[in-house]
Amino acid sequence: MAADGADVALAPPLAHGFPVAQALARAAAEDFIVEEELGFAPSGAGPHLLLRVRKTDANTDWVARQLARVAGCRPFDVGYAGLKDRRAIALQWFSVPRPRATVDWGAVRGEGFEVVEAHAHNRKLPRGALAGNRFSVRLRAAAGGGAELAAALAPRLEAIRARGVPNYFGAQRFGREGGNLRAAAEPGALERLPPASRGFVLSAARSLVFNALLAERVAAGSWETLTAGDLAALDGRGSFFEVHAVDETLRARAARLEIHPTGPMWGAGEPASRFAVLELEKRTAARYAAQCALCAGAGMRQERRSLRMRVTELECETEAGAVRLRFGLMRGSFATSVLRELIESPPGAGEERD
User: Fold this and answer.
1) Beta bridge partners of 134
2) How far apart are CA 106 and CA 92, in angstroms?
């Protein structure tokens, strides 16, 4: 295993078996459309504005700087819930302080972005302030037509509807060609980085430990089932509870995708899990002692993340030479973790990341 963990981070084991077809997922920006769902309505009054922005082949941070220029504020004062893929069309929410001068936000546009809505709001949009994301993804068939591809995918799609998929962090989290992983494994690398880059490295280190633990449970077949000592997460919510013993009620709730086992988001101290679950988490983390020490040293706390994600409203439409998948995911989950359970990309088919 590579010292920086690139293998388990970028190519962890699959839960549903080998991909059932070969297809290209991102030949053009319009093949990958993501729409943020806030889960709340703009307040209608206040010192900030919520801006709904359509960006195409554009970097989130670059768009935020353009909005800051228009609003006459510092880039730091622009809020957004999270990064979105660059090679995509993204309908994304930003916030800016209300400018003193009147701005026609409906006319604000630039290279790769345009403002489509503007609403008064009472506060800056914080990171993670989403209910989830809706995706529309075109898969271009490597051979044959759209009908053949849809037929090949149908049984796997049904399995994913019923069971969900492992909630791995996608390759985007680890930087271009895993560069953030290498930095996380190098002693003293964090101190040599500019402050703006340190958060990406810490996030990569933490995500690596989680992916490694989830990979262990996928290999053991326990990624979707509860065991004594687990901490169970309520689907789509941040709360969880300790599993003292597994009874038929808990098994049925897990089978209905209402609750999921969780894994550690590493920080200072030990995870709150118990028994064999805790021992597995500690053994896995010990393989990445440098990354765990990095997270603890940065003051991160032990937190939990669901090992499984439910894929909602999963639909497949046939197109000429392609299919279009539509589905929803909870916040913090990656569409690429769904796609890798379905398709194998042709050799050399890369993707750009934000």
Assistant:
1) 35, 328
2) 15
Tell me the C-alpha distance between 27 and 301, whole Å.
Answer: 39
Residue 336 CB partners (closer than 8 Å, separation 6+) = 170, 171, 172
Give the separation between CA 99 and CA 331, rounded to whole angstroms. 30
Which DSSP letter does residue 128 get?
Answer: T
- Which of 4, 85, 230, 235 is an active site residue? 85
Could you tell me which of 286, 284, 297 has the C-alpha nearest to residue 201? 297
DSSP-based three-state secondary structure for 330: strand
* pTM for this model (two decimals): 0.92
Nearest to 234 by CA among 310, 157, 335: 310
> Where do the structural domains in the chain lie, given as residue ranges?
6-12+164-309, 40-121
- In whole angstroms, give the CA distance from residue 181 to residue 178: 5
Active site residue 85: yes
Task: Classify domain 40-121 by CATH number.
Answer: 3.30.2350.20
Report how far residue 13's alpha carbon sits from residue 111's, in angstroms, rounded to the nearest whole number.
Answer: 39
Q: In 3-state terms, what secondary structure has residue 353?
A: coil
The distance from CA 114 to its chain's CA centroid, rounded to whole angstroms, is: 24
In this prediction, residue 143 carries a pLDDT of: 86
We find that the CATH architecture of domain 6-12+164-309 is 2-Layer Sandwich (3.30)
Joined together, the tokens standing for residue 118 give: 């503007």
* pLDDT tens per residue across span 269-278: 999 999 999 9
